[in-house]
Amino acid sequence: MWALLVLIGAASVSAHLEDLSFDGQKVFRVIPQNDEQVEILNFLASMMEVDFWQPDSVTLLRPKMQVDFRIEAEKSFDVEDLLKESGMEYQVLIDNLQAALDAQFDSKARTASHSYEKYNNWDTIAAWTADIAAQNPDLVSRSVIGETFEGRPMYLLKMGKSGPNKKAIFMDCGFHAREWISPAFCQWFVKEAVETYGKDTVMTTLLDELDFYVLPVVNIDGYIYTWTNNRMWRKTRSRNAHSVCIGTDPNRNFDAGWCTAGASKSPCASTYCGSAPESEKETKALADFIREHLSTIKAYLTIHSYSQLLLFPYSYTYNLPPDYKELNSIASAASKELASLYNTTYTYGPGAETIYLAAGGSDDWAYDQGIKYTFTLELRDTGSYGFLLPESLIKPTCEETLLAVKYIANYVLEHLY
Length: 417
Prior knowledge:
The protein is built from 13 helices and twelve strands. It has helices at residues 2-11, 35-47, 76-86, 97-104, 122-135, 181-196, 201-209, 220-228, 281-292, 324-342, 351-354, 362-368, 394-414, and strands at 26-30, 51-54, 67-71, 90-94, 140-147, 153-159, 167-173, 210-215, 297-305, 309-312, 347-350, 373-379.
């Protein structure tokens, strides 16, 4: 078996996952049963480029954990042989990644303009932020909170009826470039707010009593890159000193246990923590805005995908937060709300305990800034599509997620501190 691994490794030196075509690439799911099988996966990752989807780094692998990873087309048969030989349970989640990629675009709303039921590219989203504010001046305003590494403005939408001393909820989407369902939800949330204000009593009360800050895409440069160059890109697009590797994981770049567990010091890793906390222009802009509005922001919601989780701090330590009981009961009730529509099951709990240790996340940072009601949602699905959720599932995913978000927002309104 080790001979097979060496052969696989020798052949992969020149291969890169930046290829535009994902034809023949496979996504595997394995569940290593013991340390030896974990070691085999570690060795595999050291011999070739393995793109870990879940967990997001080889360092987080442990026995009995569900592991999803993507492999180049020409290596997939060797990898399959290796898994068989090692006796590891495995399944092929996606047999041909290019086909899954093409199948994402199955929306009936094939329009060149903006649609809430398809994936919109950045230019379309940017234009939409201007339009939605222009069309709803009494409810929505747009501002720029910073710019990306490549110089693009970071648009923030503020929603709510104007009123004195209003508290606020901050929500962001699109931290990781390839998680397209995330920005789709931020757009959906804004649509629902403006369309149901004055009709839906809960939404009307929320917008009368609270402000919502919505950052539709945090990692704009990375998001554009997933549309133009590499659909599987995760990080920002910043240059790294003394390295040819590009980008930092923006959700490992916050000053919360920075660069300890579950983050990498290697600029080539997908979980690279950056050269320092807030080294990325995008994370610094977000953090600066929240710091400036700490007296009013009472909740922080960050939307990711995939795996159907509702998480709260901490992720950088196994220690439970002081507000554990309250946060856990909110997560439990919000998960029930979410499931009430399509029976979609969410797992909830503190990040580290529920999935794995991951330092430098925006949620832990926000909580440590004093924002008590801090939650991360990992949207659909649990792996059949992974990051390539078809457009036909945008609507049901957003509808159910909205129920959880409204529940949390309403709870925050009733428990202002």
